[in-house]
Structures are given as C-alpha cells and as structure tokens.
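Deliverable D2.4 — example input (structure tokens):
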C-alpha cells in the first residue's frame, strides 16, 4: 500500500508532557496535594522526582530546539496555582509557569497548554471530584485565572485531557484514585457529562474575555470494532463501547448535546448499574454555545479494540506491569475486549492498529462537519527501553510512529484537517498506573541522575519534523 509522505503546510510537530508526570516536587514550592499523592504512596509509587521538569525545563526545551520540535504540550498543575483548588493563590506556582512559558518562547517552542491533566486538587477530589458540581465552579474560576494571567504567553489552550480516561479509570476500572469503585458506568457517564459542562463553561469564559489564541479539548479515542463482523451481538458490543468512549464525548463537544441514539444507549447502561443521569437543559444550552466556538479537537490515539458480546460478571484486570497477556477487560452488558490474530500488542497489551486512527479521523469529519481542526495531541509507544553504551535503539517506536503518521497523512488526503502531531512523550516520564518502567520518550531519562539521552527515535523524529516529510 502506498501512502502520501508530505505533511500539509504549517503542520506542527510537538512533544507532549503532563505536569504530574514530569515536574516532580509534588509537595514542593507551595503545591497543594492532589488525589493521586496518597493513592500512589499506597501502591508504592511516587511522582515526587519524575523527570524533574520543574528544574530541568530549560534543558528539555533546548533539546526540543536542537531536534526541530517546534511545540510542546504542557499542563498546568491546578494545585500549584490554587493549592486547595479554589481561594488562596500560590504565587510561587504562578511565577513558575511564567518562567516556563517564557523559556518556551526563548527556545522557539510553542506551548500548548492543558488546564487539567488528571490532577484535581485533593480538597475538591475528596468532595466528589467532578461528580460534585461545585468542582465545575472551581474549574471555571481556575480557567479564568489562567487565561487572564498567561494570556500574553499562551495562545493555545486545552481545557481537559481525556475526560473518558478520568471517568472510566476512576469509576469502571478502579485504576485511578481512589481505586475503590468498579463497574459503575452510570458514575463514569455522569462524571464525563459534568466535565464536558466544565469544559464548555471555560470555553465561554475564554471567548467572553476576548483572550487571544485558540481553545479546544483533548479526547482519548479508540476505534471499536466487532471481533466477528458477521455477529450482530459483537457489532452491538462494539457500538456500546464506541458510544461510551467516543460518541458520548464527541456529541457533547461538537453538538453540545447528545444525539438520540447516544443518549438512549447511555441511559440504558446507566440504568443497568442502578443509576440515572443528571443532564439539565441549562447544561445543554451552555454546551451548545461552546460547541460552536471551539477551535480544535485534540485526539490522543494509542490503540483500538475488538469487542465480543459479554454478559457475565465484570472481569477487569489491568496490566500495569508489562507482562504481556495479563490484561482482561470484560464489562457486563457492554462487551469483552479481545486480542485479534495478526494484530500486534505492546507488552502492556495495547493493540497496535494504526488504521484505527484513520477511521476515527475520517469519521469525525463526516459525523461532525462543524469541527474546525484536529491535532493529534498524543500518540506513541510504551516500552521497556534499554540504554546501552549511551544509546537507546528503539526502532520498534520508530515503526509505530511511522505507521501512525502514514495513516494520518492518508486522512489528510481524504480531506480531514489535521494540523499537528505531538508525540507522547517528549522525554521519559512517570506513567500513572505503571510507574517508571513504561517509557515513551524521545529522550531517555535516567531517573537516578536525571540525565537525558536522545533515543534513535529522537533523531528520526527530528528528520521528519525538519523536512515535513515522512521518508
Ligand atoms: C494518556 C495520558 C497520558 C499518558 C498516556 C500513556 O492516557 O493522557 O498522561 O500517561 O496515556 O498512558 P500510560 O502512561 O498509562 O501508558
């Protein structure tokens, strides 16, 4: 199969990071606690050192500059600004992000800034996180503060990173803090809705304030395919998973409400768990207004799923160790995720299926013609990289990224407006439910010394970014 190889004019090549995974100093410099701190301590993990980005951002930005990476995805840690989520401001945190954004510009690296990347301040988290509507008010106030404070330095904003990951991992899989709830599809859907409302309110604040720049949201999307394309029950399983992870959020993002088939399926799944969704008319009014005003959608794409119908009890086993074959995910009334012959998997059981990215991009263009632009805000391969003789030969990562870029280019050719690609991740970082063994970076980090070493993929990516061609 032949693929196009030239990226569109102005295409942005970036590296992605997230505050909690790279900054370190989770308790330092006036930062307030987040729900993750105690949860990780209990599991024997800590993000307190991570990649020490708090002190080493100059070095990382210099690497971006040297390797032709013109943009960086950064998130602001809400609890560095408002240690308790609302009220008192931490001036040290505010000043830190000014320094960081200014350094980005000094290195010619455009910052794309996310307001919330999984790290709700503990004070709000303990009061129900986004299931509590008070958190929506606090998020809006925090967003307004950031727009006002950083409007000269930041012109590319995202409200949330991966609402569905927050919702599903907290309330269905139980892999995110507090780690005590599983199987509650109703709570996951309610959490998603409330976060979409918070997103919409932040978008309206941004527009009303006339701040310069663009704003959007980042969703984690996955292609959902029936295991057996001939079996109507598998087709239905794939449809249900698709609505849960993709369509519910895409509807909320681009329509500002939920299409009848989306809503019916969501309500039925919520009812199956004994719950009822609280979606108010006023919420939808706000969401509809925001849907008309967002500039871009960030898509995080790593994998797709093949689904078989499943009605037994929930079996949810997360592979957080990199022991291939140890993942199980079977959700009653939705479906069971299964491996498919011929489709390779990473050590963490993530199916490598680059064509799924194409399918999703084309589908967005057709189903939501009012979308303006898509940025791939995360894509990359987690692996147990080995540093030997000062080098990391991660040719498997190059293959992974190349294949995804090929399908991305094919989607551009099919008329989808894709404006950029941010590799996950810029450097090795802490991985939420997997610790430090699962590495994604272009730059290897020795977590003892914090020394950065460019991997083979960094040299390859630099070539692509500099030439705007996939050779
Ligand atoms: C996305 C998150 C990132 C990152 C990535 C890889 O869901 O936005 O923060 O962690 O996935 O996931 P993991 O670290 O679990 O392998």
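Example output (designed residues):
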């Amino acid at each position: 199969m032949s693929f196009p190889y030239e990226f569109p004019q102005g295409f942005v090549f970036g590296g992605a990071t997230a505050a909690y995974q790279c900054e370190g100093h989770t308790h330092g410099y006036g930062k307030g606690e987040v729900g993750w701190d105690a949860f990780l301590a209990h599991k024997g993990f800590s993000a307190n050192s991570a990649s020490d980005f708090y002190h080493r951002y100059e070095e990382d930005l210099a690497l971006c500059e040297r390797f032709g990476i013109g943009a960086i995805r950064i998130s602001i840690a809400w609890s560095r600004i408002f240690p308790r989520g609302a009220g008192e401001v931490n001036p040290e945190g505010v000043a830190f992000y000014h320094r960081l954004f200014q350094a980005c510009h000094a290195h010619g690296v455009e910052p794309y800034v996310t307001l919330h990347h999984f790290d709700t301040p503990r004070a709000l988290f303990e009061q129900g996180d986004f299931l509590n509507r008070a958190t929506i008010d606090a998020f809006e106030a925090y967003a307004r503060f950031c727009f006002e404070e950083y409007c000269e330095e930041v012109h590319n904003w995202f409200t949330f990173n991966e609402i569905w990951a927050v919702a599903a991992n907290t309330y269905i899989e139980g892999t995110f803090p507090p780690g005590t709830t599983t199987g509650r599809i109703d709570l996951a859907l309610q959490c998603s809705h409330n976060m979409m409302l918070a997103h919409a309110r932040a978008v309206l604040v941004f527009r009303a304030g006339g701040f310069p720049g663009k704003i959007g949201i980042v969703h984690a999307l996955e292609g959902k395919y029936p295991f057996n394309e001939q079996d109507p029950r598998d087709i239905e399983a794939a449809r249900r998973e698709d609505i849960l992870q993709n369509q519910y959020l895409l509807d909320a993002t681009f329509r500002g409400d939920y299409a009848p088939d989306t809503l019916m399926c969501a309500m039925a799944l919520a009812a199956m768990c004994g719950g009822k969704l609280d979606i108010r008319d006023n919420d939808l009014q706000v969401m509809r207004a925001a849907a008309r005003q967002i500039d871009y959608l960030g898509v995080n794409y790593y994998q797709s799923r093949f689904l078989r119908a499943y009605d037994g009890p929930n079996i949810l086993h997360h592979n957080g160790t990199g022991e291939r074959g140890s993942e199980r995910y079977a959700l009653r009334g939705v479906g069971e995720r299964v491996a498919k012959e011929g489709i390779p998997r990473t050590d963490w059981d993530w199916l490598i299926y680059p064509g799924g990215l194409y399918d999703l991009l084309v589908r967005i263009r057709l189903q939501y013609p009012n979308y303006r632009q898509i940025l791939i805000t995360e894509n990359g391969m987690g692996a147990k990289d080995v540093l030997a003789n000062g080098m990391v030969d991660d040719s498997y990562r190059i293959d992974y990224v190349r294949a995804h870029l090929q399908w991305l280019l094919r989607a551009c050719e099919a008329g989808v407006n894709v404006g950029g690609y941010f590799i996950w991740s810029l450097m090795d970082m802490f991985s939420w439910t997997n610790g430090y063994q699962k590495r994604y970076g272009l730059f290897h980090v020795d977590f003892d010394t914090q020394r950065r070493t460019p991997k083979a993929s960094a040299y390859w990516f630099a070539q692509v970014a500099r030439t705007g061609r996939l050779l």
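Residues 18, 21, 161-162, 165, 220, 300, 378, 382, 424, 431-434, 438 surround 6-O-phosphono-beta-D-galactopyranose (CB under 6 Å).
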